[in-house]
Structure formats: C-alpha cells, structure tokens
C-alpha cells in the first residue's frame, strides 16, 4: 500500500533526528513531574517541524501538546483526532531503565510519519487531526490521569503508544494498581529502662507486614501485594514512636481492587489496635486501571508489524505490570503494544538502561513507530474498521463492568 510506504520513507528519512531526540532524553534522566529538560527537548522537536502548533506546559508543568491539521476530507466532515502519547520520566538511581526515551521517540516518529502519509495524498478520504501529548509521571504519580481529569483527552478519538520490553506483543493485560502509605504513631520510651511506657510503632508495622503476608494465602493467584517498611525507628534503645510503610496493591480487574484494598486496610488497622498505636492510611497517587483490549487495533498492528519483520509472542497470562495508560483506555479506544529492542535484559535493571540508550535499539524502535502509524492509516481509510474499533471499545467496557476478564 502506497500510504504504508510513505510512512516508512518519512520515518527512515528522519531517523538521525529521532535517534538524537531519544539519546538526549536518555542522557538526561528526570523523575516524575520534574521532566523539565525532556519537556523542552520534545517541544523543540515539534516547534521546528512545519505546521505543528505546540503548547508547552500543557495543563501540567512538564506536559505538552503538539497538533497538526485538520487535513483531508471535506471541511464539513467530522474530524477524527488521532493521539500519540509520549512518556519521558525515568527511574531513581538507574535512569531510563524502562525505556521511556524510546516511548517518546516511537510516538514522535509515528505522528510525523502519519502526517506525511496524509499530507502527501491530495484527496485523503477522511478529515484528520494528529495530536501528540507529552504525558509525564508514569512511573510515579499518574500524569495521564491528571491530564484526563484536566480534559486533555476530551477531543481525542483514538490513542496510541508503545512500550519497550523483551519481545513484540500487540496486547499485554497490564493490571490495575493503587499504592498505599501507612503511618503508625506510637509513644517513644527508653527501650531498656522503662519500655512499658512506650507504644511501639515498629511492632505495629511488623504486625501489618506479617498480616499481609498471611493474607496472600487467600488471594487469587493473579493478585499482588508487595511493599516495604520505609521508616522503622531511629535507635535500638528508643521504642519507635513513628513508622511508615508503602505497599502496592494490584489486581487484573479494576473491579477487584476495591475488595483487595478493604482487606489490606483491615490488616493495617488491626495492627494499630493490637499495639495501641494510631494509624493513618492514605492513597497518595492515582490508582491505575488495567488496560482495555481492542481486538481490531491489535490485529491490524500485528498484521502490519509482521510485514516489517516482527515476530509476535502469545499474550502472557501472568503479567503483573501496571500503567496509567489503562485509565486512558477506559475513555478513548487505543492500543499499548510492547516491543523488542534487541536485548534480553529485563526492564527496571541497569542492563535495560544500557539497552534503551544503545544504537541497536533504533531499528526496533522505528519499526514499531512504522507499524503504529500504518495501523492508524488503515483505520482512517476504512469506515468499517473505524466503526469496529469503536464497537470493540464499547464491548470491552461492558465486559469489564460485568467483572469479566477480556484478556
């Protein structure tokens, strides 16, 4: 198809520029909500491209929006607004060990490739706008949820991004997630001279930790509870008057998360009761939803990827990672495939940081961008496919509301 070839030629033509972008992001890792240089670098990329309207600091300090169009169809036609999402936050201590520099590159490349395919066709059959959203704080906080609440997705019809991993997969059933902070307040006392005067906040933390360990016996196999004691006291001869824990709770379906939260809170509060301490239970960040699948988009992405040499693996049944794209997938139809980058290293390791910055990853990253853009153009040029994508979205939401797994 000539549109596919146009996308591929465009992305190949600017591959040096895209690698430079990715390497700049990789070389300057920044944490959630503080991605200032990464924000500025992506804003500069689109500001230097013809016909893109760029809004820096869009609704969040380190978010941005770049738009092109509308183009094609008739001026009276409804516009289909296609969104590509860039992530660019890093991990503390190990930098871009989840390859978010490559996520930003994929979305930028796919958006520029799609623009080229649409613009170079005099009578493109549908009116299209292309939107690139810079979405900070995926690793910690949930920038996409902030942007959802701020209305950043209200005019977007389809949404796309891709995440680096160890293999190519069109859909991975990421799970819902919430993080919980637990603080125990006791009373300090000399641990040897008069311990009976104290209320041991560390005992409360240990009781809670052990209670959750026991709770796992009754949890479903796909559910996850994991955490740490962040603060356990200051000296062995002082009964701790303050301790703090942080836990992550995960379930495949968002509908199950409320139940798991209630069971975990019982453990936290019973530990306070047993030790006489006071307890605070807070949920400091947005909960992440599981990702809704879209069978039509996944099938098209696989078909296009295979023409580019991708080899797709079966959908893993026990993947327990989470992303704030899940929240977006309940509002806008889209896909979030995972892609191989030429390394067997695992995400969130120092080895993956090296792989994400290596030139070797570029072939696979740009191949993914091409497959995404080719998938978009297929949907845009077929009213039947566009309608099927929307029907898949509605059906998946209905099945989730009934508590049925659509993985």
Strand pairing plus helix content: what structural class? alpha/beta
Question: Using only CA atoms, what is the Rg?
Answer: 24 Å
| Neighbour order of strands in the largest sheet | 1-2-4-3-5-11
Could you tell me how far the N terminus lies from the C terminus, measured between alpha carbons in angstroms? 31 Å
- Low-confidence segments: none
Shape: elongated
SS elements, strand count:
12
Secondary structure elements and pairings:
Blueprint: H1 2-13, H2 15-27, H3 36-47, E1 53-55, E2 64-71, E3 80-86, H4 100-119, E4 128-134, H5 143-149, E5 158-160, E6 163-165, E7 176-185, H6 201-215, E8 224-231, E9 242-251, H7 254-275, E10 278-282, H8 295-307, H9 325-329, E11 334-335, E12 338-340, H10 350-357, H11 360-380, H12 383-401
Parallel strand pairs: 3-4, 3-5, 5-11, 6-12
Antiparallel strand pairs: 1-2, 2-4, 7-9, 7-10, 8-9
Helix pairs in contact: 1-4, 1-11, 2-4, 4-11, 6-7, 8-11
């Amino acid at each position: 198809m000539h549109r596919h070839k146009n996308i591929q030629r465009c992305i190949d033509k600017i591959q040096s520029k895209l690698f430079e972008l990715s390497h700049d992001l990789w070389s300057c890792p920044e944490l959630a909500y503080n991605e200032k240089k990464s924000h500025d670098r992506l804003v500069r990329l689109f500001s230097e491209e013809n016909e893109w309207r760029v809004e820096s600091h869009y609704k969040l300090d380190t978010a941005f929006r770049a738009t092109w169009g509308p183009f094609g169809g008739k001026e009276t036609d409804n516009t289909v607004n296609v969104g590509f999402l860039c992530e660019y936050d890093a991990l503390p201590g190990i930098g871009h060990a989840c390859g978010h520099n490559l996520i930003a590159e994929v979305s930028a490349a796919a958006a520029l490739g799609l623009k080229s395919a649409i613009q170079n066709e005099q009578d493109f059959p549908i009116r299209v706008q292309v939107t690139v959203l810079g979405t900070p704080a995926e690793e910690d906080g949930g920038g996409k949820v902030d942007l959802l609440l701020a209305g950043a997705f209200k005019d977007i019809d389809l949404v796309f991004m891709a995440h680096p991993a160890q293999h190519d997969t069109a859909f991975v059933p990421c799970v819902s997630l919430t993080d919980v902070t637990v603080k125990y307040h006791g009373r300090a006392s000399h641990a040897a001279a008069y311990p009976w005067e104290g209320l041991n906040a560390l005992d409360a933390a240990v009781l809670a930790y052990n209670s959750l360990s026991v709770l796992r016996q009754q949890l479903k196999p796909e559910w996850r509870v994991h955490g740490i004691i962040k603060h356990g006291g200051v000296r062995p001869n002082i009964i701790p008057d303050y301790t703090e824990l942080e836990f992550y709770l995960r379930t495949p379906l968002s509908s199950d998360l409320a139940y798991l939260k209630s069971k975990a809170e019982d453990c936290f509060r019973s530990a306070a009761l047993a030790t006489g301490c006071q307890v605070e239970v807070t949920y400091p960040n947005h909960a992440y939803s599981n990702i809704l699948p879209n069978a039509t988009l996944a099938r098209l992405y696989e078909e296009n990827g295979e023409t580019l040499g991708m080899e797709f693996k079966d959908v893993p049944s026990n993947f327990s990672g989470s992303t704030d794209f899940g929240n977006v997938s309940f509002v806008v139809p889209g896909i979030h495939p995972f892609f191989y980058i030429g390394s067997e290293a695992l995400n969130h390791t120092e080895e993956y940081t090296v792989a994400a910055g290596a030139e070797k990853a570029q072939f696979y990253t740009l191949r993914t961008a091409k497959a995404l853009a080719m998938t978009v153009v297929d949907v845009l040029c077929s009213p039947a496919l566009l309608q099927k994508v929307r029907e898949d979205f509605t059906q998946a939401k209905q099945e989730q509301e009934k508590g049925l797994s659509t993985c």
